[in-house]
Structure formats: C-alpha cells, structure tokens
Amino acid sequence: MDTSPNSASGTPSQGPATPRAAEAESYYGARKRLFIGLITGTSFLICTILLLFWVVPYIGLGNIHPILPYVSGAFLFVLIVVIAWASLGLVLHILKGRPVLGTQRIRGLTIKLFLPLMVLLARFLGIPKENVRHSFIKVNNELVRSENDTFAPEDILILTPHCLQSSTCTLRLSYDVDHCARCGKCPVSMLLRLRDHYGVQFAIATGGTIARRIVVQKRPRMIIAVACERDLTSGIQDTYPLPVYGVLNERPNGPCLDTLVAEEAIERALRMFIANPPPPVNLNALITPASRD
Prior knowledge:
Layout: H1 19-25, H2 32-55, H3 58-64, H4 68-96, H5 106-125, H6 129-146, E1 156-161, H7 188-198, E2 201-205, H8 208-218, E3 222-227, H9 229-239, E4 244-248, H10 263-273, H11 289-292
C-alpha cells in the first residue's frame, strides 16, 4: 500500500482539532477501559465454558476410548490459548496503539466473535448498549488507524446516511449526490466540497441494504462512515475485512432527522488515510448565509 512520506508513521501530521471535531473524534466520552473490561470478562467466560466442555464429559469419553479425553482436552486447550492470546493481544494493542504479539488481524476476531458476546455480558451487568457501541467504535478506529495504511483517493469512500440531507429538500441525492444544489442548508454541500478537493468517492445510503450495494458497486479499499452508534457498529461488522473508520453523527433534532456531522473530523480522517493529501480545505469559507440560519 502507498505510504505518505509526511511522517514516520506513514500518515500526514495533523494540526490541533477544533472543539467540535475533537468531541466527535473522542466519540462523545467513550472510554477504552469499558471495552478492555468487557473483552477481558468475555474471554474469561469463554475459556471457562470451554474448560467445562472438557471436564463434564471426561468420564464418558474415557468409556468410549482411553485416549479420547486427552484428544478433546488438547483441542480445547488450544482454543483456550488462542482466545486468551487474542484478548491479551487486543488489550495490549489498544493500550500501546500498535499491533503486538502478532495481532495484526485481531480486528476481525473482535468484530465477529467478541462484540456480540460483549453486548450480552454488558446487558447482564446492566451496562447500556450504547456505551458498549461507543467504546467499540472508538477501539475499532484506533485499530484501523494503528495499521498506518494509506490509500489512493479514489479507493476511499465517504458513506453517509440520508438523514444528513435537509428534511425540507426536494432533491433525491441517494441515487446521485451531484444532484445537490449546494445551498449550504445541510452538511452535504461541505462533504461534496471535500470530495472534490481530495478526489475521494462520496455516497448517501438510505439504509443498510443500500449501503452494502454501494460498497459492492464502488469497490473501495477503505470507508469513512458517518452514522449513529447502531448503524456504525453493524456497518463495521457487515463490511469486514474492509477497514471502516467511523464518525458519529450529531442528532440535535432526534434520530434520523436533519442530523449533522463535524466536517472537520471527516477532513482529518481523509488526511490521515490519503497518501500525499493536498492542502486542507478552508471549511469556514464554505459556510453560506443559509447554513448559518
């Protein structure tokens, strides 16, 4: 993959984030230690259950053949070691900000195995599901960022929900975002400006099925997705192994109605993942009188 020469880590240096972008990039107070605690507890429970799967039928297996308890024990021991290694490697990856113990592919195990079990454990412990999703999105983004991969602009897709479009707009943008009048009443005009400036792809989806179809049609190698916690979490799961960097939307009018996004957070993500990005866009200069209303 292409690597930008602008920094030793392969990603261009970033200036300080604006307060709004910083809040979006912090995932509105999400804490990594919640994720670490849940994944540690989940791993312990899985290993305990696997151990019970061996202990309980131990006597019965011995009656079938003397060697069967040892064969099943060896198999389950390997599974326990793999799960313990994966969870430990993931925790160290989160804390150090770089892959350790050969865990470069650990994101897939987190998405496919640990997350559903962590949600169940959190429910049992009375932890709100949204807190788990916040923490998962934050950790996922850090795992994606720590890979230090950069891409050609045309291989990056900005994928957003249709609720970013003004509810009073009569134009249909889900089929072609270039139908936008760029009036500045919603974030779409600024996202189009970012698309044009950086040369990336941009699409609006009306739901999960349409989003998956867009990904198949456009064939990106990396996605910057804007959505709520639930849709971001499911989207990250659905599109794996494609790297997805999630940006939470803002919902001043409630869910799915005239939502907003910190455009600065989108641009910072673009500059993080594009090889040799152009100078940044002056987003403040793009705010029209209509967008201030």
